[in-house]
């Protein structure tokens, strides 16, 4: 069972991303992930492929975070391909709410297992994922290229 999301700021809406969000998504992704940010053409193509799966935390002042959780075509499992929250909004529940909502979308189409990768030194993200039911499966050396190792984490749904 997916944990209940914590309440976040009343003036923030978790919603599906729209085409009008693409520039802001690119800026947010670059701010959060630096050299490992998705290039604009990847963001565009993923938006076209996964409309409805890309969630944003919207505030009147702009996007505060996003998540992208997608099912495989056969819906045997899903992947949380991205979760990013602007640093000034860390520890306010945005990452948790976005992740929980992505997991609920996946569960809603029959996905029974979700996978993700996370930088091994990102203690805050690893803690969040563990609280949401993810367990470490293994370390994958050079997952995102030389020197970019990742932990593979898995959570069962249902």
UniProtKB/TrEMBL annotation:
Residue intervals of the N-acetyltransferase domain: 12-158
One Pfam family it belongs to: Acetyltransf_1
PROSITE patterns: GNAT (PS51186)
Keywords: Acyltransferase, Transferase
InterPro entries assigned: Acyl_CoA_acyltransferase (IPR016181), GNAT_dom (IPR000182), YpeA/RimI_acetyltransf (IPR050680)
Keyword Transferase part of the UniProt annotation: yes
Coiled-coil ranges per UniProt: none
Name of the protein described by the UniProt record: GNAT family N-acetyltransferase
Organism of provenance: Kibdelosporangium philippinense
């Amino acid at each position: 069972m997916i944990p209940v999301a914590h309440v976040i700021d009343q003036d923030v809406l978790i919603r599906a991303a729209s085409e009008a969000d693409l520039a802001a998504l690119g800026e947010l992704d670059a701010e959060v992930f630096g050299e490992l940010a998705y290039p604009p053409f990847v963001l565009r193509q993923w938006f076209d492929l996964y409309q409805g799966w890309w969630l944003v935390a919207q505030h009147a002042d702009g996007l505060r975070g996003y998540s992208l959780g997608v099912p495989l075509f056969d819906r045997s499992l899903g992947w949380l391909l991205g979760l990013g929250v602007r640093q000034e909004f860390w520890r306010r529940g945005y990452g948790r709410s976005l992740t929980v909502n992505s997991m609920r979308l996946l569960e809603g189409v029959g996905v029974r297992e979700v996978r993700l990768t996370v930088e091994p030194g990102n203690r805050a993200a690893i803690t969040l994922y563990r609280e949401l039911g993810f367990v470490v499966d293994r370390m994958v050396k050079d997952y995102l290229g030389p020197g970019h190792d990742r932990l593979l984490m898995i959570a069962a749904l249902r």
